[in-house]
Design brief:
Layout lengths: L1 E10 L2 E7 L3 E6 L6 H13 L18 E10 L2 E10 L5 E4 L5 E2 L9 E4 L5 H4 L2 H15 L3 H23 L5 H43 L6 E6 L1 H20 L7 H6 L10 H22 L10 E6 L2 E2 L6 H23 L7 E5 L7 H11 L4 E6 L12 E6 L2 E2 L6
Parallel strand pairs: 3-13, 3-14, 8-12, 12-13
Antiparallel strand pairs: 1-2, 1-4, 4-5, 5-6, 6-7, 9-10, 10-11, 14-15
Helix pairs in contact: 4-5, 4-8, 5-8, 5-9, 6-8
Length: 412
């Protein structure tokens, strides 16, 4: 799959811009602040409904505009698809597929697939856990768009449950609220189990690709890995001894000793079904109830989980050098690309690779290695302020970006 045409109206700095593209490598060259990243951001937003630069839609609209439009023509084999996405200031965003009737924006998910590399990716290693959770969820939705609803359902239930816990902390909690909380526990357990199950499967798919990508980018002296840390596991492990002992004693059987509980292996959440994970969440909510009521917030669930990145025997965060940090970030994106390629071999589409001002951040060795890896992709879009930053391995078309648009005279 490749992007043949991109048109923007009132998006960021552009009142109107049209960019014709083709398969292979295209490098967009222009001074810093000229609008190159705005073009790449629009493509990424069309794919994920999220910006890699900001957390809200408001900055995406040109100042003073009520809406922005992203239009794209995608080509896959002999078939082409036209997508339109309307980003609105005052109402829900809407989309169109092949100029049909308007649909929900999320109905466009999965049609345009991208992997976007950007300087902001440093947050994947250096940032807080929310950056890594977002990385997983965006990839998950790209691969299986139905999980956009899974995430939306979980966020809705979490908001309602937190509101109830907050009222308890304010002293407005009654026996009636207790019953309501039990109901929300059931909803959140199911939604959380769906999301956790999908994330765990995705991390298993990413693992070998992450290891291989890091080896490709470096001298191979250290191995990269990712470990999913679930709050569900933490609560069950902490509460396991007491809960097991109490249950056994109540049945009249021999109580489980602390030593027995300590010797028991931790349950591998990856081996559990969605139904089993739902049951575990219910148990965890019961175990955490007192603390949650005291603090007025949900302490267990995918919204507090962590994807720990490991380099060698140490966490990447806080221990990796600047070069190692960049290599880990690039490896995560490359692992995403390889997972999407796995899907493409079974009926999916290879993603569009976007490298937004990345080469300026890398040393010569990493530039050349990254360029060699991505150069064979169906479509690679690269931005650079200085053309000399682009490795020789990335031969292809060069497009000059000027204030407000594209220099057609220099579009070669």
């Amino acid at each position: 799959m490749y992007l043949e045409k991109l048109s923007l109206t009132d998006f960021r700095s552009y009142a109107q811009v049209d960019l014709a593209l083709e398969p292979g490598v295209t490098v967009l060259v222009g001074s810093n602040g000229i609008g190159k990243t705005n073009l790449m951001e629009a493509i990424g937003y069309l794919a994920t409904l999220n910006s890699h630069r900001v957390s809200t839609d408001a900055p995406l609209l040109r100042f003073g505009a009520e809406r922005a439009m992203i239009r794209a023509k995608l080509v896959r084999g002999e078939q082409s698809t036209v997508l339109e996405l309307e980003i609105n200031a005052a109402r829900a965003n809407r989309g169109r597929i092949n100029r049909s009737n308007p649909v929900r924006a999320r109905d466009l998910l999965g049609i345009c697939q991208t992997v976007l590399f950007a300087p902001e990716d440093l947050a994947l290693v250096k940032g807080d856990p929310s950056s890594r959770r977002r990385f997983l969820d965006e990839l998950l939705v790209s691969l299986m768009p139905r999980h956009a609803a899974t995430r939306s359902d979980y966020d809705r239930v979490l908001k309602q449950r937190n509101a109830l816990l907050k009222s308890a902390r304010a002293g407005k909690f009654s026996a009636g609220h207790e019953a309501t909380l039990d109901v929300w526990d059931q909803h959140m357990a199911r939604a959380g189990a769906e999301l956790l199950h999908a994330r765990l499967e995705l991390v298993d798919r990413l693992q070998p690709h992450l290891k291989n990508a890091y080896a490709q980018l470096t001298d191979g002296s250290k191995e990269a890995a990712a470990v999913y840390r679930s709050t569900l596991q933490d609560i069950l492990d902490d509460d396991g001894a007491g809960a097991s002992s109490g249950a056994r004693a109540a049945d009249g059987a021999a109580a489980v000793t602390d030593a027995d509980a300590a010797a028991a292996p931790a349950e591998d959440l990856r081996l559990l079904s969605v139904e089993q994970l739902t049951d575990r969440y219910i148990q965890a909510f019961v175990a955490a109830r007192r603390k949650e009521l005291e603090r007025g917030i949900s302490l267990v669930g995918p919204h507090r989980d962590e994807l720990e990145l490991v380099l060698g025997s140490a966490p990447a965060k806080g221990y990796a050098s600047h070069g190692e940090t960049w290599s880990m970030c690039l490896s995560l994106r490359l692992a995403s690309y390889y997972v999407m390629l796995d899907d493409a071999r079974t009926g999916g589409s290879p993603p569009i690779l976007i490298l937004d001002d990345v080469f300026a951040e890398l040393d010569v060795q990493r530039r050349r290695k990254l360029a060699a890896i991505v150069s064979g992709a169906e479509q690679v879009l690269v931005t650079a302020a200085v053309e000399d930053d682009i490795p020789a391995e990335l031969t292809g078309r060069r497009v000059k970006v000027i204030p407000g648009g594209i220099d057609e005279q220099d579009n070669r």
